[in-house]
Amino acid sequence: MNVHTPQRPSRNGLDWTRALAFLARERQSFAERNPASAALAAQASKHLLFGVPLHWMNDWGTPFALHVSHARGAEVNDVDGHALVDFCLGDTGAMFGHSPAPVAAALALQATRGYTTMLATADAAAVGHLLAERFGLPFWQFAMSATDANRYMVRWIRAATGRKKLLVFNGCYHGTIEDVFVDLVNGQPAQRDSLLGQVHDLTEHTVVVEFNDLPALEAALQQGDVACVLAEPVMTNIGMVLPEPGFWEAAQALIRHHGALLVMDETHTISTGPGGYARAHGIEADALVLGKPVGGGVPCAVYGMSAGLAARAVKAKQDAPPGHSGIGTTLTGNMLAMAAMRATLGEVMTPDAYAHMLALAERLAGGLRTLIASHGLPWCVTQVGARTEFQFSPTPPRSGGEAEGVLDPELEHLIHLGLLNRGVMITPFHNMMLVCPQTTNDDVAQLLGALDEVLGQIVRQP
Ligand SMILES: Cc1ncc(COP(=O)(O)O)c(C=O)c1O
Q1: Which of 345, 290, 303 is nearest to 106 (CA)?
Q2: Cα angle vertex 61, ends 58, 67, to 5°?
Q3: Pocket test for ligand 1, best of 178, 180, 236, 267 (most atoms within 8 A of CB)
Q4: Ligand 1 touching residue 174 (CB < 6 A)
Q5: Are strands 287-290 and 261-265 parallel, antiparallel or unpaired?
Q6: pLDDT (average), residues 165-186
Q7: Which H or E element spans position 446?
Q8: Helices 441-458 and 16-33: crossing angle, nearest 10°?
Q9: What is the 3-state secondary structure (H, E, C) of 198-239?
Q10: Which of 129, 152, 335, 362 has the most CB atoms lying inside 10 A of its own CB?
Q11: What percent of the chain has pLDDT over 90?
């Protein structure tokens, strides 16, 4: 983490001088608590670029990478023997707990029967049925990640509609699908400047407007060249941004009126309930994408479409010359992933599991509000089912632009490190917390207690 001397001692309701002193102590404490992780990090740095399997793993704000020994349910155990209560849950990949028992059993069985053959097993039809029943869309395909599911969905829709443009909301994230990395900068579309190695002009085929801005959406759709709107029903990747009442109803009417299609990326908002946010709120999307937890943490993703879109997609394929479609990968739909999805959809993502998660998340959100008020901080709490977040603003942001304005990565990392040293893990990006079916009341109490302690050391003193 890059810590610079602050211009102003007060920041987001905190005493920044106290905060920096706290940070120095926490970094020291982390180093003392985690000698085995330090040794592994040093070893890994010899041959792993950036010292970690993926460079993002350095984004936790820890002085060196924490190394995990094992994870089960709502607990992660690090190599130095600490049991950490996990509210990050692999940033949603483990939203139903680490190694859910039905998935572990399905994987163990499948492990003795082959992993990949480029052919379907009996799990394929069963998973298709479970998906159609749960999400109300009749036709499905698979991918190895939500990124790829989004990429393929957009390809199918462009092929099916003959339109080239994609519309996204400012500040969105849908994985590393290239097309979405266009932001509004001073009201103008601009390619995200942090992208590495991107040589195409993404602004050519991507239109971007602010979330909750119906006039801007209408103006963009009026051009008549937008193939689809790709959106999370609630923005979750720039801090959370909730749709305003009536937004999706009106947006959907506009999208239909202008002949575009709506793709809901429910990869994070599946936290809402068993059928995702769209189903729970009566949004009738033409297509849906879900990755991360759909295989209980095993790499895989799904995308589904309406009968109308499916018919157009099939026709596009039939009309195309033989050869590569540009859609798919060799391991997609492999036997291990299909077994994992069947177990997850059939036995893990159950109404009972959600009932527990939602009740506990309510409790967490309520506890956070009380805690924030008790420290007199101008912060708010946003919740989407099992997903809860506190944001450094007195009221929830209404757009991606507003949400970006209240992010404070330095402060986030400081809080996350303080929590980690107190046995609690939350996501390294903004302040998101997920609860899983194995999370307990005591876990929530531990998180609130740890946060109380951290805030007590950094708030302004009277
Ligand atoms: C809404 C959404 N869609 C897609 C993705 C991409 O998921 P993956 O990185 O597993 O491909 C993410 C990742 O955070 C996401 O938040």
Answers
A1: 345
A2: 55
A3: 267
A4: yes
A5: parallel
A6: 97
A7: helix 441-458
A8: 130
A9: CCCCHHHCEEEECCCCHHHHHHHHCCCCEEEEEECCCECECE
A10: 152
A11: 96
Residue for token pair 């155990």: 77
The pLDDT of residue 8 is above 90: no
If DSSP codes are grouped into helix, strand and coil, which group holds residue 106? helix
How deeply is 419 buried, as exposed, middle or buried, from its count of CB atoms within 10 A (0-12, 13-18, 19+)? buried
How many CB atoms neighbour CB 174 within 10 A?
25
Q: What digits encode the pLDDT tens for the residues 341-382?
A: 999 999 999 999 999 999 999 999 999 999 999 999 999 999
- The backbone torsions φ and ψ at residue 231, rounded to the nearest 5 degrees and listed phi first, read -150, 150
In this prediction, residues 432-441 reach a mean pLDDT of 98
Q: How far does residue 218's CA lie from ligand 1's centre (Å)?
A: 27
Q: How many helices (H) and strands (E) does the chain have?
A: 14, 18
What number is the average pLDDT over the span 73-96? 98
- The residue whose CA has the least distance to atom 13 of ligand 1 is 175
Angle at 278 between CA 382 and CA 188, to 5 degrees: 70
Q: What is the pLDDT of residues 35-45, one digit of tens each?
A: 999 999 999 99
218-231 CB burial, b ≥16 within 10 A, e <16 = bebbeeebbbbbbb
390: CB partners within 8 A, 6+ apart:
368, 372, 379, 380, 381, 382, 431
What backbone torsions phi and psi does residue 97 show, to the nearest 5 degrees?
90, 155
Alpha carbons 46 and 100: distance in angstroms, whole number: 34
Q: Which tokens sit at 24?
A: 């120095």
Query: What is the reported pLDDT for 4?
Result: 44
What's the first-to-final CA gap in the chain, in angstroms? 29
Structure tokens at 387: 């997903």
Instruction: For the chain, give the number of residues.
Output: 462
Beta carbon of 173 within 6 Å of any ligand 1 atom? yes
Q: pLDDT band at residue 9, thresholds of 50, 70 and 90?
A: low
Q: Is 416 in the pocket of ligand 1 (CB under 6 A)?
A: no
What is the C-alpha to C-alpha distance for residues 130 and 117, in angstroms, rounded to an integer? 23
Closest ligand 1 atom number to CA of residue 149? 11
β-partners of residue 85 are: 75, 424
Q: What digits encode the pLDDT tens for the residues 307-320?
A: 999 999 999 999 99
Query: What would the pLDDT profile of 367-420 be if each residue is shown by its tens digit?
Result: 999 999 999 999 999 999 999 999 999 999 999 999 999 999 999 999 999 999
Helix (H, G, I), strand (E, B) or coil at 189: strand
